[in-house]
Design brief:
Layout lengths: L2 H12 L4 H11 L4 H17 L3 H16 L3 H12 L18 H10 L4
Helix pairs in contact: 3-4, 3-5
């Protein structure tokens, strides 16, 4: 199994609240498309943050931080381009989520979006 697909499966295992989203994604896309799935992960993570659901967004950020630290190119690419890049912009609701990024994610975020 490709590392980026395994990333999606491992994330869903770590954050069970993403299970329905995953099932719908697999049904609609006839398989796992990690970059497409992560667009929805961003939306769910921001909604969790704005809804003050401490569990969902914190677990997601912690999991993705751990994955970035493994430094697997396919995983890093998905997390950087399809999660971090798509986080809210400074003028959008939920932008404060970026204040909660751990060190590896902060470095990648600053590199891909230097102006925030």
């Amino acid at each position: 199994m490709e590392r980026d697909v395994q990333l999606v499966r491992d994330l869903v295992a770590a954050v069970p609240g993403l299970g329905d989203l995953f099932d719908a994604h697999v049904f609609n896309e006839a398989g796992v498309l990690p970059h497409v799935f992560f667009w929805d992960v961003v939306q769910e993570t921001v909604a969790s943050f704005l809804g003050r659901d401490e569990t969902g967004w914190r677990v997601t950020l912690r999991f993705l931080e751990e994955q970035l630290r493994l430094d697997v190119p396919e995983v890093t690419q998905v997390v950087t381009t399809s999660f971090l890049f798509n986080l809210p912009w400074p003028d959008q609701p939920g932008y404060c989520l970026v204040d909660h990024l751990a060190p590896a994610m902060r470095v990648r975020f600053a590199a891909i979006r230097p102006s925030g």
